[in-house]
Amino acid sequence: MVKFYSPKQSKNRPVQEIKTLTIDALDAHGQGVCKRHQPVVFVEGALPGEECKVQITSSQKNYAQATLKSVMQPVKARTEPFCPVYEHCGGCQLQHVESSAALKWRQQAIGDYWRKHLALSDIPWQAPITGSKPAYRRKTRLAVDARNPEKFKLGFRQQGSKKIVEIDHCPVLLDSLSALIKPLTNLLSTHPSRANVGHITLLAGENIALVQIKLIRQLSNHFKGALIAFANDHKVNVSLEYSQGNVETLVEHEPLYCQLDGSLYLTPGANDFVQVNDSVNRKMIDQAIDWLDLNPTDAVADLFCGLGNFTLPLAKRVKHVLAIEGVAEMVQRGQLNARNQGINNIQWQHGDLTETSLIVSALDKKFDAVVLDPSREGAREVCSIISQSTIQKILYVSCNPTTFARDAALFLQQGYRMDKISLIEMFPFTKHLEIMSLFTLQKSK
Questions:
Q1: Is 24 exposed, middle or buried (0-12, 13-18, 19+ CB in 10 A)?
Q2: Domain spanning 139-251: which CATH class is it, in words?
Q3: Which of 64, 138, 337, 428 has its CA 20 to 30 A from that of 271?
Q4: Distance from C-alpha of 263 to C-alpha of 285, rounded to nearest angstrom
């Protein structure tokens, strides 16, 4: 019988009844679901087919939440977590389940949700995009706790808490980043100025890694000297970010870059958005290009373009790309990076893609396809306008199945068909899933 850690009950909260339930399914977030119980019960850590002892922690009219106490008979898909701090760290939530089984169950859950909310009788699922693991992350943020002069902590936030789980390595980080954690802890713990550090960002490029330290207050020259020595000893770039947002480069051995397809690359800073899973990102770009099947005479709009993750590969294959992003610094960096690679057929634009007038103006010219890669909030305003257009192809990359369903409904109602869709395992072992879908216009407007 498998037993699980659970937090102590609050003195002010009565202990709820312990029940024995059989889990029927996994939801889109990786929670076990007992549908036969009324109300339906969601159990973190439980898997389909398992009989579990659970403790109800909250209950509403239509659903209840429960804590897993033990599993009477584990299913074959249950695995032993490979991280020693898995039960406490807030980074990973699904190390207890075999990855392919989790994807299959979660795809079923998402499909059921879409069939209900989008009135789809058939969902054109394609094979999911997966990559190498467990060491996949090329970017992370480390939290710092220097309040106790006797015990400096560097690590990740505890699940459901602001407390820091101290680590000396992380198995889901690329080895080059994981190897920096222990020496960074040793360095920071010896300097009084460590209390001036807010957090630390690690970013691995193809050629070099970057350590950027967010400061609450100024560092001493002695501490800066120690960081410069660290940069030279470990052959990494080191920079400081001040509270006003300006960045000071202490050491740059060479500019950091992240490869895309072919010879194309991005040049992200520590605060820029970059897909954290390199191998999955490259497959995602390849699939987008394949699904869109564009011609050299085509024009494409890439909305929420970031640094140009899709923009640059698109620009090498079509006549013109309009790239719009809401963060001005990323537009500037993307434009410079494209120019340095000799790419001149991109119109870069900074703009708020929740503003209807901007969207209408931007899409006033003829486009053969649109690529959307918004944040978790989705792209309601953009999709509302595009759905009424005559654009033939829409490629939508989403990190939120719920807002995707809301936006996809706009396309389906206006004559578009969902031709292809696949899950993207950008963040293995976590609740997060990304989706790519291709919509094509089926009738003239």
A1: middle
A2: mainly beta
A3: 428
A4: 14
- Quickly tell me which residue has 């509403």 as its tokens: 60
- Superfamily of chain region 108-131+276-441: Vaccinia Virus protein VP39 (3.40.50.150)
Whether residue 399 lies in the annotated active site? yes
In this structure, the number of other CB atoms found within 10 A of the CB of residue 5 comes to: 11
Of 422, 395, 434, 400, nearest to 411 (Cα)? 395
Which amino acid would we find at residue 230? F
The β-bridge partners of 158 are 89
Burial label for 312, CB within 10 Å (0-12, 13-18, 19+), is: buried
| Residues 218 and 196 sit within 8 Å (Cβ to Cβ) | yes
Residue the block writes with tokens 């403790």: 55
Cα dist. 4→83, 88, 132, 330 in Å?
A: 15, 12, 28, 44
**What is the per-residue pLDDT across 61-100, written as a single tens digit (0 to 9) for each?**
899 999 999 999 999 999 999 999 998 898 999 999 999 9
Mean pLDDT of 23-50: 95
Using the structure block, give the residue that is written with the tokens 């929420």.
304
DSSP letter string, 229-276: HHHHHHT-EEEEE-TTS-EEEEE-SS---EE-STT-EE---TTS---S
Residue ranges in 80-174 assigned as alpha helix (H): 99-118
The dihedral over CA atoms of 417, 396, 282, 257, expressed in degrees to the nearest 10, equals 160
CATH number attached to the domain at 2-78: 2.40.50.140
Q: How far apart are CA 272 and CA 139, in angstroms?
A: 11
The Cα-based distances of 222 to 200, 240, 249 in angstroms read: 19, 14, 16
